[in-house]
Backbone:
């Protein structure tokens, strides 16, 4: 329970269905250590923890706060920093779901004698031929299947998503009807929880001693390698970035490649962002035991991506993904998720992309 509307309604629904509910709020990050300037908000704030606890008190079920800051920092935050230093763009929320939140929740569920865990994600879990897999939510505007591609069979077998068949307006109405009017109006945060001011560059500088000096005086080049100017360091740029380049051109320029070995950032035109294939690693097969060589799927390369029909080919421990139509802004470090209709076949991390 994060203290937000979705996890609160999830708990209420299960409670009304007769389940013995235990509320868990996870403390993942200490804002005082972030060095940012924004007021503490989101799932780790004291206000949010108190909101979650109040619902439990009102409804008469137990509520616990668990401290997973060490696990979170060692895995999620360290990976976040390492990926940017490697010239990639990570998605820490997906990593947290896959390796921290579910593992931590299941561990506490076992200790408390709970059979299942439930979250406020907008997604559905299905089972066919002995395999569990994620499927899109009824509310496609809120669907979160993309961020859940890394869940294991064991995790999905013990997970419930009560909001998967509901729309966000229906959830808000439920909160209102149950007397939580303020909660029904509560806004949502889309920031990275440990970067509350949304300034990941500042976070990296504070986190890595001497980083600014180490990566200073990087160079911008065009796709042909011609010098365009200097920049403050390659970790502070992402594929597809247009603003904040510090250079003026007669037409829009975008970050099309990041080369950490030489502290080089390539700037090109929008057409230079186009790719027709990518390689994906750190794979998790979900609907089927393996990715079938040559199978077709809809590949999404970012959360709001509509997806592109693609063919998947096994190459040792990676997938080579050939897009049927050109795709812009394929960023190494981001997640690639493969769909068959509404169902998630599986996913992985984008390793590299290219255009033949």
Residues:
């Amino acid at each position: 329970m994060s203290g937000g509307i979705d996890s609160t309604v999830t708990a209420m629904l299960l409670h009304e269905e007769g389940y013995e509910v235990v509320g868990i709020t996870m403390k993942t990050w200490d804002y005082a250590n972030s060095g940012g300037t924004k007021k503490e908000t989101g799932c780790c704030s004291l206000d949010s923890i108190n909101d979650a606890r109040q619902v439990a008190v009102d409804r008469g079920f137990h509520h616990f706060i668990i401290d997973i800051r060490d696990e979170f920092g060692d895995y999620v935050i360290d990976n976040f920093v390492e990926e940017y230093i490697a010239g990639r763009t990570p998605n820490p929320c997906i990593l947290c779901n896959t390796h921290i939140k579910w593992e931590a929740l299941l561990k506490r569920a076992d200790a408390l004698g709970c059979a299942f865990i439930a979250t406020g994600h907008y997604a559905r879990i299905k089972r066919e031929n002995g395999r569990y897999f994620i499927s899109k939510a009824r509310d496609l505007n809120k669907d979160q299947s993309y961020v859940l591609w890394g869940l294991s069979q064991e995790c999905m077998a013990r997970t419930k998503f009560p909001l998967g068949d509901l729309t966000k307006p229906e959830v808000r109405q439920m909160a209102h009807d149950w007397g939580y009017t303020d909660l029904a109006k509560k806004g949502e945060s889309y920031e990275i929880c440990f970067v509350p001011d949304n300034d990941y560059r500042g976070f990296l500088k504070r986190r890595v001693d001497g980083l600014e000096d180490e990566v200073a005086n990087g160079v911008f080049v065009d796709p042909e390698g011609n010098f365009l100017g200097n920049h403050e360091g390659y970790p502070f740029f992402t594929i597809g970035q247009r603003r904040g380049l510090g250079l003026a051109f007669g037409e829009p320029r975008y970050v099309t490649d990041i080369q950490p070995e030489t502290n080089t950032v390539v700037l090109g035109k929008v057409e230079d962002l186009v790719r027709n294939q990518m390689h994906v690693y750190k794979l998790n097969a979900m609907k089927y035991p393996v990715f079938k060589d040559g199978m077709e799927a809809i590949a999404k390369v970012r959360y709001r991506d509509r997806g592109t029909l693609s063919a998947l080919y096994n190459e040792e421990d990676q997938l080579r993904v050939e897009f049927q139509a050109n795709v812009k802004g394929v960023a190494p470090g981001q997640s690639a998720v493969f769909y068959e209709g509404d169902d998630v076949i599986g996913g992985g991390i984008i390793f590299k992309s290219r255009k033949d």
Observations:
- The chain has a mean pLDDT of 91.
- The chain is about 25% helix and 30% strand.
